[in-house]
Amino acid sequence: MISRILFLVILVVAIVLFVRKIRERIALLKAGTDENRFDRPGERLTVTLINVFLQKRVIEERFSGLMHAFVFWGFVAFSLTTLTEIGRGLISDRFTFFIGFLQPLEIGYIFLVDIFAILVSIGIIALIIRRYVFKPKELSYTTVVGGEIQHHHAESLIVGGLIFGLMVTYLGMVAFQPSEHPLSPIGTTLHAVGGANDLAYHSFWWAHMVLILSFLVYIPYSKHFHLIACPFNEYFRNLESPATITPLDLEDEDAEKFGVTQITDYSWKQLLDLYSCVECGRCRTYCPTYTTEKALDPKKLIIDLRNHLLDQSETILANQKGKNGNGQDSTTEIDLPLIVGETLTPAEIWDCTTCGACMNRCPFYIEHVPKLIGLRQSLMLMESEFPEEAQTALRGIENQGDPWGIGQARRTEWAEGLNVTTMAENADVEYLFWVGCAGAFDARNQKVSQSLVKVLQHAGVSFSILGEEESCTGDSARRMGNEYLFQMQAQMNIETLEGYQVKKIVTACPHCYHTLKNEYPQFGGNYEVVHHTELVADLIQQGKLKPSKALPDTITYHDSCYLGRHNNVYQPQRDILKAIPGSQIIEMERSKANGFCCGAGGARMWMEETEGTRINENRAKEALDTGAKTVASACPFCMTMLTDGIRTHDKTETVQTVDVVELLEKSL
Asked: Tell me, what DSSP letter sits at residue 422?
């Protein structure tokens, strides 16, 4: 009886400590701003269950993912065993949930648990060896405190030790448990070695329960709170295109600031992200800035923001309770350190290409890019602090309607002699061809626009352009954080499109494509938007385009981030290339969802790249290493960056860069 009372006291203390810290963690989330992530519950729940219980995204990394899955599945299998042992500690040594018609299932369940006890032990040993012996780069993380570098490995060792201890003590319980307890085949073998021994059994039992309750208490106090946070983060993930930016309410007269300056300016979901990081480092794997030795490291970004949140927790919680501690909400403005300067450097904020590789690789849907965009918005709109060279593009968009500042009067020069009509001349067409600034003004990409026009005319597609009425979509302005300029451009363009009652739009620019398709609806501009490769691939399938001239060539295709990762369009481009007689496609190692950025996204097209190695040169080298004689793309920014990268490697005489539609035109 005394032992049961003692166990009850320990159990209650552990639960109280656990709940107390959980409430504190939740209170910090409530300090964030509102965000609606409660829509489409059925879809959210279905995908969450698949990802959580099948560990679908975790096991994409074969070895480490499978080892972590063993540990997770083991904990799921052990959940009923843990409750059973708690019942035996409080009620009776013979307590079991398998009574009545469930009794025949008990041996099978115990056998499953015994198997997972072994698998979990193997998984923990393998993961500890991986972390402390092989030391993969993606697991590293250091901070400089007081002039000394501190490595963050202790918590993983503590948790690994706790879990391994749980498995050892469980197997010890099995080996020495009373004879009347049911045994699995594995348990029978262990019991034959140990035999029924009451003292040994209860010693292992107490050790096992102390470890379980220690683990319970430790979780919310450590980075391993992600064990609780991750399933919720998966449920509340972004269901839209990951590159879509939430609009700012610029007409809110009560708004004292725009964007993110301090940690509580983030939404509760953005703060939940910080709890959910498992520090696996997968976000680094295909990150162009980390790969090319720049300041921005997506893993460090999340950890630094999490540490910043926890460092400010006392102030945040005190503000929520009120200064007098009476539990009433405080009406005073909370005074917290600025994120930029205190926790992150301006270089980290502006390095990002918004390619989304970090979010694509994260097994738990952490959203890195929106956190940086929020900081850019505050720097741009509140402080007017941004890279000096970006001013040229912003001024060009604002004054001339394009980032080069060339002007509307020259928007149709590329189409001379092609018999292309404007919407003002002929609005009774199936498609509006949104040319985009690069397609209209950049000499190399003008040729892509011309090829697309010829292909569409060959297929009998009716289309017109806006001509001088077209203006920049504002994509680059929005990615820089200038939401005001973006919304001005969006509203102006939507008014023009509505004036012609446009229903369908085709464009050769993935950045225009994404903005028109996913972000203009935020302001009432709803259109059926297709990328030119989607339309052309469909025309080939319908038999309206029949490539016949052989182009015996080896081709490698570069996936645009804003077409691929952000909008899941990968196959049409490849279908077009496959339809060209004689073509041989060679995929780069980093392709499709794991493709590597060209370096131009996130408005980096208009900024200098001064740190580390150049992103486009890294990608160009990978393309050249395939041995292909043609590097194809389907994005004007990618075309520019790849061409420059290949020129740097002095291969322009032997390797050509083309748009997919240019190859198709030659084959017709």
From this structure: B
Q: Encoding tokens for residue 204?
A: 């292992």
Q: Residues 305, 277: contact at Cβ < 8 Å?
A: no
Q: How far apart are CA 60 and CA 593, in angstroms?
A: 12
> Span 179-190, mean pLDDT?
75
Domain match, 536 and 419 both: yes
Q: E-strand spans in 231-348?
A: none
* Separation between Cα atoms, residue 444 and residue 643, nearest integer Å: 10
Element spanning 519, H or E: none
Between CA 316 and CA 31 the distance in angstroms is 7
- The helix (H) or strand (E) run that includes residue 584 is strand 583-585
Structure confidence at residue 597 (pLDDT):
98
Average pLDDT on 591-596 reads: 96
Boundaries of domain holding 293: 263-383
- Structural domain count, the chain: 4
Q: Measured between alpha carbons, how far is 619 from 614 in angstroms, rounded to an integer?
A: 9
Q: Please provide the DSSP assignment of 29-76 as one string.
A: HHTSBP----S-HHHHHHHHHHHHHS-TTGGGSHHHHHHHHHHHHHHH
- In order of 369, 426, 514, the CA distances from 521 in angstroms are 21, 25, 11
509 confidence band (pLDDT: 50, 70, 90): very high
Same domain, 162 and 64: yes
Q: What is the DSSP annotation of 553-568?
A: EEEEEPPPTTTTTTT-
Q: Is the pLDDT of residue 288 over 50?
A: yes
- Report in angstroms the alpha-carbon separations of 568 from 62, 329, 531, 594: 23, 45, 12, 12
d(CA 660, CA 645): 19
| CATH assignment of the domain containing 621 | 3.40.50.10700
At which residue do the structure tokens 């972000």 appear? 519
For residue 506, the cross-strand partners are 433, 530
Is residue 226 domain-resident? yes
- Which amino acid is residue 40, in one-letter code? R
pTM, rounded to two decimals: 0.93
Kindly state whether residues 154 and 202 are assigned to the same domain. yes
**pLDDT for res 153:** 65
Confidence of residue 104 (pLDDT cuts 50, 70, 90): confident
Shared domain check, 330 and 201 = no
Which secondary-structure segment (H or E) carries 241?
none
Per DSSP, the residues of 140-180 read --EEEETTEEEE--HHHHHHHHHHHHHHHHHHHHHHHS-TT
**What number of CA atoms fall less than 13 Å from residue 646's CA on the CB side?**
23
What gap in Å lies between CA 476 and CA 486, rounded to an integer? Answer: 8
Looking at the structure, tell me whether residues 95 and 56 fall in a common domain: yes
pLDDT band at 152 (very low <50, low <70, confident <90, very high): low
The whole-angstrom distance between residue 470's C-alpha and the CA centroid of its chain comes to: 32
CB atoms within 10 A of CB 175: 20
338 shares a domain with 354? yes
Q: What is the mean pLDDT of the chain?
A: 93
* 253 within a domain of the structure (yes/no): no
For 147-169, what is the mean pLDDT?
77
CA dist list (Å): 659 to 481, 558, 562, 667: 30, 10, 16, 13
Q: How confident is the model at residue 331 (pLDDT cuts 50, 70, 90)?
A: very low
Do 472 and 379 have their domain in common?
Answer: no
Cross-strand pairs, 431:
463
Q: Counting every residue, how long is the chain? A: 668
CA dihedral 606, 609, 615, 617 (to 10 degrees): 100
Instruction: Report DSSP state, residue 653.
Output: T
State which of 74-78, 91-95, 125-129, 407-411 shows the largest mean pLDDT.
407-411
The amino acid at residue 492 is M
